[in-house]
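Saturday, quiet lab. Running sequence design on the structure tokens for the scaffold JK sent over.
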């Protein structure tokens, strides 16, 4: 599978949020061999929980699959630039790669507001943004347009 294929799977998860009224963000975690080992989508509204972001759900599923909190060598694909909480979870899980789609100008922690991954910390995560950016942004735009 390609990077775009993984992001399309994350987009499918984002679209599933529309049924629950959650902001449409989807995420997958991929192991070094290319298998998807974690999936998540925003479920804050559905579960009435501030921490049920797509990245957290996907990371928890991947950790359960691996039997470890360390996801070194794994890659995370998410449709929206991670917030501070999710950037911290990505760092704490020791993910090696982060791919995101649309920028989050209000709370993004990969360069939009701040860049947690540029700090002098003991683990480096390679960050790449803009993967299928237009498609990821369109899902979000449609959601917010329908709410107004």
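Result came back. Writing it out in full:
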């Amino acid at each position: 599978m390609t990077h775009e294929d993984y992001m399309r799977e994350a987009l499918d998860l984002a679209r599933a949020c529309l049924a629950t009224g959650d902001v449409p963000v989807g995420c997958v975690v991929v192991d070094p061999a290319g298998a998807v080992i974690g999936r998540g989508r925003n479920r804050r509204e559905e579960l009435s929980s501030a921490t049920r972001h797509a990245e957290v759900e996907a990371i928890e599923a991947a950790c359960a699959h691996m039997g470890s909190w360390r996801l070194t060598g794994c890659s995370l694909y998410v449709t929206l630039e991670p917030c501070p909480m999710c950037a911290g979870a990505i760092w704490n899980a020791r993910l090696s790669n982060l791919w995101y789609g649309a920028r989050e100008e209000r709370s993004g922690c990969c360069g939009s507001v701040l860049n947690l991954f540029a700090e002098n910390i003991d683990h480096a995560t390679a960050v790449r943004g803009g993967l299928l950016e237009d498609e990821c942004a369109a899902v979000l735009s449609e959601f917010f347009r329908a709410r107004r």
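Notes for JK: Residues 53 and 101 are 16 Å apart (CA to CA). The beta strands are 26-30, 36-41, 75-80, 97-102, 126-129. Ask whether to fix the surface positions before the next round.
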